[in-house]
Design goal:
single chain, alpha+beta, Rossmann fold, Dna Ligase, domain 1, D-amino Acid Aminotransferase, Chain A, domain 1, 5 domains, nine-stranded mixed beta sheet, eight-stranded antiparallel barrel, 19 helices, 33% strand, globular
């Protein structure tokens, strides 16, 4: 019997395992990096061991440090979570050799499926349908290239989560994309091996949850994870919608055959690419661990997969009979990223985080409801060393339609302040016709025309969810808070009051990169009218302002309709939550510090990170869109390109350099500027 579990992981999945361990009466140990020292998962454990450093290579990928932590704390079992060392056969073998219980499959099983190249050969021999694939060397061999057709997908042989994965539509770009994918894979998994396979444009991602036991392989249905961005899943659900019954049964049978081909033990997931056009499916890979999206399976089958993992690891008997799925469950991944700017990861402090109506965290509710699995809360930092996922939000309901609606409502009511997230994209996706109809594919999000993917002013008002009236409101509230914060009470004489009105007062706000000027005036009775620069828009009147525990409640009247909004002020940032969603604004100072200005053509670091590639030098002639630098942050690589044709006039960055967000990396002088200077 296991008495103490060390979780060789961090964040949300560590908290998830701790929750089940506590319920079973098992003691827990966390390991953490410098950056994670104050994160919630550390406090959730009974004991915590510090791993010096920040990067995964210094900490969570150090098998020797983790085994030493287990020895020092007396842990007799290790749960790997997902990512990091969870599918590392050498680590699993080292755990077993140290006399500890490994809560996962046998090292040999991990090895069999650890190489996606070799696993495909195994599956083909077991009768599981597979796509033809090539090694990186074969795909770039002149004698083979003529036989390969685009589009292609470059994939990391180890790991997952979209790291080391690239779509290639021109053979001319294949060597470059293979090199980039290999670099990402090496950084994320310590293994830069990649392979190439055909890319199915209209495919759906359908995966089957299995549990290998000594009595046989248990199949807990399937999940659809087709809505993806950068090959990382965004929406997951169980059961998969719209599958023909015969196809569903065939998928389950293929997954069972895959697991039994390697005598699999423990929880695992067999992933398939389902071609809707031909009603055929192909083996992609087997994840020999717990999946991020396991909560939707737990919800519809009423099981705790972590508890079952522990039972199998202890050698206990597990029931193999599985009931029909109950209702429908949908999960979305809430990320710190900006969808309107190519999903650029965000970092910073979460100043507000609240999901009303949550009935469970980290384990399924006894009935239908909202579950929240999160590794962070208000006051916590999203850094640059690890994945940018903030939380998983899961709804379990009687029908798919009801689950979609409830999940959308939960996201709309949530308060998430401090940094940009994909919340508005998720809200829009849950109402998109392709998602509602269950006809989405893995390329859907890449091709979709959604308001939350636009970066202009209207689209920038948080995905079109905020009305212009709400934008006016936010401006009015910014002014109201300025008064209230100085006086501590609701004043009888508002800021900007004049006994003879000369003109409107003006306040400027930055809304997603666009500045708006708001004119306002105080009137008798404490009402405040605000007007945008568009004189055709009717006035918005602030009728009531009251203090709340988290900020201010403001009632606004516009065109005869009153609406209540909650407002939170943090420095120059104003967060407004109302019936139509959330709007974040930044108050623009009246006077700009000249030292903060940068030269035209400056290429700025979009986030803190490491410069991993410099592909230009001072004096080089460059073309528009040409890659000049490559940065790595949050385990992903980001290309920084020339904004237009010109000459590199300054280059401040060097390979290996750590840079802060907003740092000037290089300056490109446009051809026209150079001609003017020469003249």
């Amino acid at each position: 019997m296991i008495t103490k579990i060390l979780v060789a992981n961090r964040g949300e999945i560590a908290r998830r395992v701790f929750r089940t361990a506590r319920r079973l009466g098992i003691a827990t140990v966390a390991v953490h990096s410098d950056a994670d020292a104050r994160m919630p998962f550390v406090g959730d454990a009974d004991e915590a061991v510090h791993l010096p450093g920040n990067t995964p290579g210094e900490t969570y990928l150090r098998a020797d440090l983790i085994l030493e932590a287990a020895r020092r704390t007396g842990a007799d079992a290790i749960h790997p979570g997902y990512g990091f060392l969870s599918e590392n056969a050498d680590f699993a073998r080292a755990v077993v050799d140290a006399g500890l219980t490994w809560i996962g499959p046998a090292p040999a099983s991990i090895e069999s499926m650890g190489s996606k190249i070799e696993s495909k050969k195994l599956m083909e021999a077991a009768g599981v349908p597979v796509l033809e694939s090539f090694t990186a060397e074969q795909a770039t061999d002149p004698s083979v290239v003529e036989l390969v057709e685009t589009p292609l997908l470059v994939k990391a042989s180890a790991g997952g989560g979209g790291r080391g994965m690239r779509i290639v539509r021109s053979m001319a770009h294949l060597p470059e994309e293979i090199a980039r994918a290999a670099s990402e894979a090496e950084s994320a998994f310590g293994d830069g091996t990649v392979f190439v396979e055909p890319y199915v444009e209209s495919g759906r991602h359908v995966e089957v949850q299995v549990l290998g036991t000594s009595e046989g392989t248990v199949v807990f249905g399937e999940r659809d994870c087709s809505v993806q961005r950068r090959h990382q899943k965004v929406i997951e659900e169980a059961p998969a919608p719209g599958l023909p019954d015969d196809t569903r049964a065939a998928l389950h049978a293929a997954a069972k055959a895959a697991a039994e081909a390697i005598d699999y033990r423990g929880a695992g997931t067999v992933e398939f690419l389902y071609d809707q056009a031909t009603d055929r499916f192909y083996f992609l890979e087997m994840n020999t661990r717990l999946q991020v999206e396991h909560p939707v399976t737990e919800a519809v089958f009423g099981v705790d997969l972590v508890e079952l993992q522990i039972a199998v690891a202890e050698g206990r008997s597990v029931p193999t009979a599985v009931a029909e799925p109950n209702g429908h469950a949908i999960e979305v991944r809430l990320y710190a990223e900006d969808p309107a700017r190519d999903y650029q990861p965000q970092n910073g402090r979460i100043t507000g985080f609240d999901f009303p109506g949550v009935v469970s965290t980290f384990e399924g509710p006894s009935g239908y409801g909202l579950r929240l699995d999160s590794g962070v809360g208000a006051g916590d930092e999203i850094g640059t060393f690890y994945d940018a996922m903030i939380a998983k939000v899961i709804v379990h309901a009687g029908t798919r339609e009801q689950a979609l609606r409830q999940l959308r409502g939960a996201l709309q009511r949530a308060r998430i302040h401090g940094l940009r997230t994909n919340r508005d994209l998720l809200i829009e996706l849950l109402a998109a016709p392709e998602v509602v109809d269950g006809t989405m594919s893995t390329t859907y999000l890449d091709e979709a025309e959604l308001a939350s993917l636009e970066s202009d002013f209207i689209g920038g008002l948080n995905g079109g969810l905020a009305t212009q009236a709400q934008a006016f409101l936010a401006a009015a509230v910014g002014w109201t808070e300025e008064v209230a914060s100085r006086r501590g009470v609701q004043t009888r004489i508002p800021n900007g009051w004049r006994n003879v009105l000369a003109d409107h007062q003006h306040t400027r706000f930055d809304v997603d990169g666009t500045e708006i000027d708001v004119a306002w005036v105080s009137e008798r009775g404490g009402y405040r009218k605000v007007r945008n620069y568009d004189d055709d828009v009717d006035d918005v009147v602030t009728r009531e302002v009251t203090r709340t525990e988290q900020g201010w409640r403001v009632v606004v009247a516009h065109e005869g309709i009153s609406r209540a909004f909650d407002v939170t002020i943090n420095g120059e940032r104003v967060d407004v939550d109302g019936p139509n969603g959330h709007l974040a604004l930044r108050k623009v100072p009246r006077f700009v510090d000249p030292a903060s200005q940068v030269a035209e053509g400056s290429l700025l670091a979009p986030m803190p990170g490491t410069v991993v590639g410099v592909h230009a030098a001072v004096g080089d002639n460059v073309t528009e869109g040409q890659t000049l630098l490559v940065m790595e942050a949050m385990k992903m690589q980001h290309t920084i390109a020339a904004p237009y044709a010109g000459v590199v006039s300054e280059l401040a960055a060097s390979e290996g350099q750590q840079v802060e967000a907003g740092a000037v990396l290089a300056v490109v002088a446009a051809d026209m500027e150079l001609e003017d200077e020469g003249a």
